[in-house]
Amino acid sequence: MGAYILRRLLLVIPTIIGIMIVNFTLTQFVPGGPIEQIAAQVQGEGDVFRNIAGGGDTGQQDTGNAGGGGYAGARGLPPEFIAQLEKEFGFDKPPLQRFLLMMKNYLTFDFGTSWFRSISVVDLVIEKLPVSITLGLWSTLLAYLISIPLGIRKAVRDGSRFDTWTSATVIVGYAIPGFLFAVLLVVLFAGGSYWRIFPSRGLVSENFASLSTWGQIKDYLWHITLPVVASSISGFATLTLLTKNSFLDEIGKQYVLTARAKGLTERRVLYGHVFRNAMLIVIAGFPALFLGVFLGSSLLIETIFSLDGLGRLAFEATVQRDYPVMFGSLYVFGLIGLIVGILSDLMYVFVDPRIDFERRQG
Predict the structure, then answer these.
(1) Domain topology for 121-361
(2) What is the DSSP letter of 227?
(3) To bridge 138 with a disulfide, which of 61, 123, 217, 228 should be the other Cys (CB 3.0-4.6 Å)?
(4) Could you report the per-residue pLDDT of 105-160, keeping only the tens digit for each?
(5) How far apart are CA 40 and CA 77, in angstroms?
């Protein structure tokens, strides 16, 4: 197993490089880069940059004409100013040289500094990471803790009234988007229109630092309840149906009939034989579920509950064309996804020791 893990870890390097190549190449063809955005801001502030654009007197009336005072929006920015911006952002170098330099720094986790925030990208990611980890980890854990027992019970009581009613609930949960469910939770339980039981914004209270250890734990759990419930709703529905169908498929196999014929109890049959085989496909869905919450739905959930996490950070960086933050976030997301995939394989072996990835590779 050690050799297999080593091969997977070594495969992470070319995979993440391939991800970065594709995205770096795409950005070369996307209009509205950082220089264009800065130029647009400068052109909208002709009074401030009048001297830069045309050397005019700041007290001169702005006519807005190309031949008049020095209005940057009409006359355009001087080539010297554009060249200075290109040099500052590194666009004076060929794309290949810029990419190689970026990857050399990224391999040592040097993501540079945000162009528009004047703060290290690593510090930004570390600052926003707790929010995204909270949503991803707790939502996935909650979905598994509820969905697996519920799916097993639905499989055992397949066709009963319990199975019918829970299936209707699961389908409704699957049909409701996470962000819409989040809005509903805010309206009902966060002071939107009815009860004010939970806070509607932030990960902790403003007086969090002054609370006792137990008080900080309660305050943290109090704040994350609604965001975590909203994030886990879609994963809960999918995982419940997946667990039920997987157990139904295994229950009908010959080895289950043989185990029952030997006199084993139903609990021993389910959790001693069926569980190990049925859970393989459920575990296989763990990376997709975790990353779906961590990367996909986190943006909308973070926005609704005013949580400042990686989802909002990456979105704002993409809109602003803040390439250090954008590519740094992508690099971190890619690494997390690849590592979670390796952990999924390890969980396969933990659930069923008969699986030998090294022998299959050979």
Answers:
(1) MetI-like fold (1.10.3720)
(2) H
(3) 228
(4) 888 888 888 887 878 888 888 888 888 777 878 888 888 888 888 988 888 888 88
(5) 10
